[in-house]
């Protein structure tokens, strides 16, 4: 299993490094710090991935990869952590962020939401979203910062040989 993961990461890395688009617009993309890295790049990637995971926006993975490039962080780790929020988990994660935001702002939750209004419909955006957007975004941003900081501290201060073995350069 470990060997398979390592081979897949190297295969994806080779294909990505050969991309003409990426090489044109991101000239430092072939630098080993983005693919193999060190403890600092893994720690930065931990923060970026966990922070992007909590953002209630589409394409968190792309944002995580771009932020990892500019922060000189490990791109595969930042991207993988952003994948934690997927269609199966996003409702639970973002609802938790909303609950945390209501606690931070000391605002009441909307208990009497009409169950006949479909979520994300125009009617929902017109009648419900204006009341929940502040605790929703604030809670997820603050939780993203907290969880990202925890990931950064854990990775930066404890040596995990797993990361080193997984992303080790064979060349």
Mind sketching the topology for me?
Elements lengths: L1 H16 L2 H6 L13 H16 L5 H11 L4 H8 L7 H16 L16 H6 L1 H29 L3 H6 L5
Helix pairs in contact: 3-4, 3-5, 3-8, 4-5, 6-8
Count of helix runs: 9
Rg over alpha carbons = 19 Å
**Shape by Cα distribution:** elongated
Total count of strands? 0
**Ends: how far apart?**
21 Å
What does this structure look like?
The protein is mainly alpha-helical and 171 residues long. The protein has one domain (2-166). Helices cover 67% and strands 0% of the residues. The chain contains nine helices and no strands. Helix 3 (39-54) packs antiparallel against helix 8 and helix 4 (60-70) packs antiparallel against helix 5. It starts with a helix and ends in a 5-residue tail after the last helix. The model has no long low-confidence stretch (mean pLDDT 82).
What would the keywords be for this entry?
171 residues; mainly alpha; 9 helices
Can you summarize this structure?
The protein has 171 residues and is mostly helical.
């Amino acid at each position: 299993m470990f060997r398979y993961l390592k081979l897949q990461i190297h295969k994806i890395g080779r294909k990505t490094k050969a991309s003409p688009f990426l090489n044109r617009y991101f000239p430092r993309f072939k630098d080993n710090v983005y693919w193999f890295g060190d403890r600092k790049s893994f720690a930065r990637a931990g923060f970026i991935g966990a922070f992007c995971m909590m953002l209630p926006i589409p394409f968190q993975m792309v944002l995580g990869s771009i932020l990892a490039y500019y922060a000189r962080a490990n791109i595969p780790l930042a991207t993988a952590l952003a994948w934690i929020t997927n269609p199966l988990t996003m409702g639970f994660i973002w609802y938790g962020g909303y609950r945390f935001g209501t606690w931070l702002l000391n605002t009441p939750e909307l208990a009497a939401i009409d169950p006949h209004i479909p979520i994300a419909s125009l009617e929902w955006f017109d009648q419900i979203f204006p009341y929940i957007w502040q605790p929703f975004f604030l809670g997820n941003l603050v939780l993203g910062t907290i969880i990202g900081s925890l990931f950064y501290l854990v990775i930066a201060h404890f040596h995990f040989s797993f990361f080193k073995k997984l992303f080790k350069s064979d060349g």
